[in-house]
Structure formats: C-alpha cells, structure tokens
C-alpha cells in the first residue's frame, strides 16, 4: 500500500507539473499590430516582373553553358526600370553580375539591414517544356497567375524589394538605418562569385549588419500537422551540404567464377549500413524554437506535449520521423544518389563507387559526418572521400528574440494578420550562409503564400505566382523597411 501511495503521489506531482507548464506556455504571437499601410502597385510593376522573367538568366554548373548576355540585359533592365534607385543609391557590381546597393541612413550609429536574393534560375528539365501551362520564359498570365521560371525562386523577391525601395524613394522617404540590397548571380550553382564575394567585401570593410533577410521559408497556407492555419516559417538556420564517395577496388575477372563478395557487393553493403544507421535525431537545431512558437496555438492535448518537451521529446521525435520532411528536420540525412560500377554483364568490375549526399544538421560539421561514416562502415576495404567540389558547413542558429526576427514577425502580422509566425530550420541552402561572417542574425523568409502543391513548383514544372501575392510581396518589403528604422 505504501508503494502504491507513493506512486499515486508521484503521478499527481507529474500531472501538476505538466499542467503548470502548459498553463505557463503562453503565445509568442505579436498582438495589436496595426495593418500595414497600403502600397500602390500598378500594372507597371507587373510588367517589370514580366520583363525580368523573359530573360533566361540560367545558371549552369558548367559555366561555359551560361549565356552571359542575358545577365547583362537583366542589369540593364534594372537600371531602366528603377531610375530613382540608380540615381540615389550607391551601386556596385561584383564579378560583373553580382549587385550591391547601399541606401545610406541618417543615423550612422544604427547597424545596416541587408535584404538579399538572387536572380539566376535553374534550367527547365529537357522534355518538360510541354508540361507547362505557359512557356517557362514567356512571362504569360493565366487565371490570375503569372507563369515563369523565377516567379518563386527568386526573381520575384528581387524585383519586389526593388519595387518597394523605388516606391519609398518616390514618396521622399529617407531611412534612419542604412538599407543594403545584395543580389547574387549564381546562387543556384555555388554562390561563390556573387554572395560569397560580396560578403567577403563587407567583412573587409568591417561592416557588421543588424540582420539579414534572404529567401527560405514561406507562408504555408495549408498549415502544418495539428495547426490548420496559415503558418509563416522564418528560417533561423540552414543545413550544411556534403557529398561523400565510397570506393573499393577488387581483382575483377570473369563472372562465371565470382568471389564471395564483389566490389559492387562491398560498396552496396557499406551503403546499406549507412541507411540502417541514420544520424541521431535532435530537437535543438531549431525545432525546439519552432515548438515554442506553434505549441501555444495548438489544441490543449498537443499543447501539453510541446510545453513539456523534457518528457515528450521521444514521442515528438517518433511522430516527426514518420514523414520525409519531418525526418529531415530532425537529423543529418543520408541519401545515396550515384552508383558507378561495371562495363559488361559477364565481367566482374574492378572498381565500384557510390556517392552519398548528406544534409547536415546545425551542431555537426562536414568533418564529424565523415568520421561517423567511417565508424558506421567499419571496413578498411572501403575508401571514404569527401568531395571537395562543393561543401557547406551548417549555419549558426539565429536568435528569434533578436530585433531582426521581431521586425520580420511584426511585418508579417501587419500584412498577413491571420498568419501564425514561427522560426524553423531551412532544409535547403541559400546565399545567406555567406553573410554569417558579418552578421549573427540571419533569417530566411519569402512573403509568398504556398501550399504543398505549390512547393513542388519550385525548381519544378509550372512555377507561378499570383498577381495578388506579388503585390503583397512589395507591400511586405516596403513595410519591413519602415519597421526596421529603430
């Protein structure tokens, strides 16, 4: 009886702790934010975006395939389209096509804000052109949507930011805080000639920024599991990138007399070990911050779970790991992407190679990933080599309590009042990672409403943006500039 009594007391204490934590789990959403001021956006702004979409500023890993005349024409289009910007702001170019603008503020004691994006786009996959409702580089309208490569990634952000600044200049607005605009020409391949070069120059000039806003998160119109409301996802960190090659060499020979394990079998076994032993799941790379923001907005039962992560972390992890996107947010992912071996069906291959792509969670590094790969495979016959052509360490995690996040949060609430705002971890890579050397507070958000179907259009078929959403993008950036003046 005594044990039962203590057990019941323990359960009562646990329930009390859970309840108190839940009741103290208050909303992080800003309230009483006035509606953002209207911004006059006429057909001319849409026509300028159309002109930008018609320029095929396609980036290729093989630079010899890139048509640089399209990039030159894009720069010319900007000069023609935004005369106030080009007469009143300082403009510099980097490696010919990277653009950096400076709108000098009246108060030099305030750190500058950097709005950034990129105007290069990915190619349209050969053979898919006929699947588009409107040709991908014609900039045509249908049903209130503007179709074209770059409508979502990322010409719309670049043009909307410039429209916002041009419009503010037209009203005579003069910022207290310096506003900088940086637009890369090669984000889709490496970002080395654009954003990396510009960030290095800011560092050389000893310029430190208040915050950076780049592309990344969007407004998820169909919500997230447990919260069927529009959710604005502000990236406070992004995963790193590395590909590792696994190689083995054997004697080869005739297929009629194979050894117990061929070179293909050895590498296949190594790949299998990696897939069966995923990296450990973690909630401390941005997810814990996300739960702090979305948890208080959920029904009471789910609110208990997120208010008591110390107890329910294993449950949260297990549920999230059931979906590919949730699993990718939890851990460094392991994705075999290339296998090379053999030249003839009756000849044993001498060499076999597999390439594994890793998207690395903040808190880990390319080096720790490579070491773990060796430990899991545990086979001296397999050579493990990090491919140096392109690697990127995961970013630091920015502070959702810093001024920049608050200003972005406030602006979202002013333009999209029904939206729930939350930090999250960006799974892809952006140019923003290069600016960590001059700013600890980097955020990734595009003010674009998108559902699950729309997210598939990025780098895919029928990329498009509604005219209403584009006009709201311009309003968002104009409001953000105004909100960032102190």
Radius of gyration: 25 Å
Shape, per Cα inertia axes: globular
Distance between the termini: 64 Å
Count of helices? 15
The largest pleated sheet is described as:
8 strands, mixed
By DSSP, the count of extended strands is 17
The low-pLDDT segments are: none
Q: Strand portion, in percent?
A: 15-25%
What is the typical, i.e. mean, pLDDT? 95
Give helix % range: 25-40%
Structural class: alpha+beta
Features:
single chain, 486 residues, four-stranded antiparallel β-sheet
Model description:
- The protein has 486 residues and is of the alpha+beta class.
- It contains 15 helices and 17 strands.
- Helix 1 packs across helix 9 and helix 13 (403-415) crosses helix 15 (467-483).
- The longest helix has 22 residues, at 2-23.
- The radius of gyration is 25 Å and the shape is globular.
Structure summarized in a few sentences:
The chain is of the alpha+beta class. Helices cover 36% and strands 21% of the residues.
Helices, strands, pairings?
Elements: H1 2-23, H2 43-53, H3 68-81, H4 83-88, E1 90-94, E2 98-103, E3 113-118, E4 141-142, E5 145-147, H5 155-170, E6 179-184, H6 192-204, E7 211-220, E8 231-238, E9 240-249, E10 253-254, H7 263-276, H8 287-294, H9 300-307, H10 309-320, H11 324-330, E11 333-341, E12 347-348, E13 351-360, H12 366-377, E14 383-386, H13 403-415, E15 420-426, E16 442-450, H14 452-455, E17 464-466, H15 467-483
Parallel strand pairs: 3-6, 3-7, 7-16, 8-15
Antiparallel strand pairs: 1-2, 2-6, 4-5, 5-17, 7-8, 9-13, 9-14, 10-12, 11-13
Helix pairs in contact: 1-9, 2-5, 5-15, 13-15
């Amino acid at each position: 009886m005594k044990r039962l009594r203590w057990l019941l007391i323990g359960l009562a204490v646990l329930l009390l702790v859970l309840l108190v934590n839940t009741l103290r789990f208050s909303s992080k959403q800003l309230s009483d934010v006035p509606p953002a001021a209207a911004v006059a956006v006429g057909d001319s702004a849409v026509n300028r975006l159309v002109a930008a979409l018609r320029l095929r500023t396609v980036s290729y890993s093989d630079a010899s395939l890139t048509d640089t005349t399209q990039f030159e024409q894009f720069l010319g289009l900007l000069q023609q389209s935004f005369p106030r910007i080009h007469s009143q702001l300082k403009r510099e170019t980097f490696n010919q096509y990277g653009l950096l603008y400076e709108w000098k503020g009246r108060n030099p004691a305030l750190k500058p804000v950097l709005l950034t994006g990129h105007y290069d786009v990915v190619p349209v996959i050969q053979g898919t052109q006929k699947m588009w409702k409107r040709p991908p580089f014609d900039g045509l309208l249908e049903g209130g949507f503007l179709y074209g490569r770059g409508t979502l990634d990322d010409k719309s952000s670049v043009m909307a930011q410039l429209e916002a600044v041009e419009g503010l200049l037209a009203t005579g607005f003069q910022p207290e805080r310096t506003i900088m605009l940086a637009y890369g020409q090669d984000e889709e391949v490496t970002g080395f000639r654009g954003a990396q070069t510009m960030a290095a120059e800011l560092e050389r000039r000893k310029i430190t920024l208040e915050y950076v806003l780049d592309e990344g998160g969007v407004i998820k119109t169909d919500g997230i599991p447990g919260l069927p409301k529009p959710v604005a996802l502000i990236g406070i960190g992004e995963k790193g990138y590395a590909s590792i090659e696994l190689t083995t060499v054997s004697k080869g020979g005739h297929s009629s007399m194979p050894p117990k394990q061929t070179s293909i079998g050895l590498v296949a076994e190594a790949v299998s070990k990696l897939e069966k032993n995923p990296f450990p799941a973690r909630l401390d790379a941005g997810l814990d911050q996300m739960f702090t923001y979305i948890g208080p907005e959920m029904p009471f039962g789910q609110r208990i779970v997120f208010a008591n992560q110390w107890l329910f972390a294993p449950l949260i992890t297990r549920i999230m790991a059931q979906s590919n996107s949730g699993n990718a947010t939890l851990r460094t992912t392991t994705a075999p992407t290339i296998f090379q071996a053999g030249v003839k069906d009756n000849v044993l291959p001498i060499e076999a190679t597999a390439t594994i792509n890793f998207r690395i969670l903040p808190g880990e590094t390319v080096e720790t990933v490579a070491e773990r790969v060796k430990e899991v495979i545990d086979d001296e016959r397999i050579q493990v080599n990090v491919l140096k052509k392109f690697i990127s360490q995961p970013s630091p995690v920015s502070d959702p309590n810093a001024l920049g996040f608050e200003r972005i949060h406030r602006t979202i609430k002013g333009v999209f009042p029904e939206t729930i705002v939350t930090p999250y971890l960006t799974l892809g890579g952006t140019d923003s990672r290069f600016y960590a050397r001059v700013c600890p507070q980097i955020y990734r958000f595009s003010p674009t409403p998108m559902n699950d179907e729309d997210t598939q259009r990025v780098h895919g078929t029928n990329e498009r943006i509604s005219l209403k959403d584009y006009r709201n993008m311009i309003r968002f950036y104009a409001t953000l500039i105004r909100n960032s003046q102190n």
